[in-house]
């Protein structure tokens, strides 16, 4: 497998394989649609297939790769046009939800959101992007559920698989500071607790759009 580099040491092999292959995807050396052949990667890195298999599973969980039964795993192909369309709808949903929650932020919902911010911070510290994405997506799901509008939470649940697959929430290709992205979610939570509906709506809309000054597309 071209570009993989020198053989790895025998310490935390799956983590090292993951880091090496993820780097190739982020840097564009591995293109969308390229097959991740476990035997080939293992041979090039001088390791068994077991750590490669674990690394590929992690990449699939993050959304950087897709696994197709009986065919194998491939670098994920994301349509920028579809992602932009999904993001536009997400902005509307979250702006509406944030306004509703800020007007009636109940303690239980606030604590549930705060727990997800803690999860994001811990995941960022551990370098576990898959766990970070799970917590991030759950944060925004809880926001919609806390709006007390059953149609809003239903729309989010229908969109969530596409938002994840299209990397519209917590883009795994993000190369910035994941810990700072977790902090940004803490700031968003503060806007909800402020009871200022206009401020909260504007903050969540800007976050969903990925406006300048907002960390990543969390």
From TrEMBL:
Q: What is this protein called?
A: GntR family transcriptional regulator
For whether the record's keyword set contains DNA-binding, the answer is yes
Coiled coil segments of this chain = none
Keyword terms: DNA-binding, Transcription, Transcription regulation
Q: Which Pfam families match?
A: FCD (PF07729), GntR (PF00392)
The record's annotation in CDD domains points to: WHTH_GntR
**A GO molecular-function descriptor:** DNA binding
Cited InterPro entries: GntR_C, TF_FadR/GntR_C, Tscrpt_reg_HTH_GntR, WH-like_DNA-bd_sf, WH_DNA-bd_sf
Please report the organism this UniProt entry assigns to the protein.
Streptomyces gancidicus BKS 13-15
Q: Does the keyword Transcription apply?
A: yes
Q: Which residues form the HTH gntR-type domain?
A: 11-78
């Amino acid at each position: 497998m071209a570009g993989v580099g020198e053989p790895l040491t025998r310490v935390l092999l799956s983590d090292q394989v993951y880091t090496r292959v993820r780097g190739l995807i982020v840097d564009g050396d591995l293109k969308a649609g390229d097959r991740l052949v476990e035997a080939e990667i293992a041979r090039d890195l001088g390791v068994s297939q077991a750590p490669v298999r674990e690394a590929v599973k992690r990449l699939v969980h993050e959304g950087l790769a897709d696994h197709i039964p009986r065919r194998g795993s491939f670098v994920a192909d994301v349509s920028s046009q579809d992602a932009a369309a999904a993001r536009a709808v997400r902005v509307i949903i979250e702006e509406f939800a944030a306004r509703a929650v800020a007007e009636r932020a109940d303690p239980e919902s606030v604590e549930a959101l705060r727990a997800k911010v803690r999860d994001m911070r811990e995941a960022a510290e551990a370098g576990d992007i898959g766990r970070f994405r799970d917590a991030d997506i759950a944060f925004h799901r809880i926001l919609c559920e806390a709006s007390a509008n059953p149609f809003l939470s239903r729309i989010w649940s229908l969109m969530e698989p596409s938002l994840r697959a299209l990397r519209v929430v917590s883009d795994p290709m993000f190369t910035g500071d994941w810990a700072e992205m977790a902090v940004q979610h803490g700031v968003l939570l503060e806007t909800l607790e402020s009871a200022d509906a206009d401020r909260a709506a504007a903050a969540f809309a800007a976050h969903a759009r990925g406006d300048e000054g907002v960390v990543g597309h969390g």
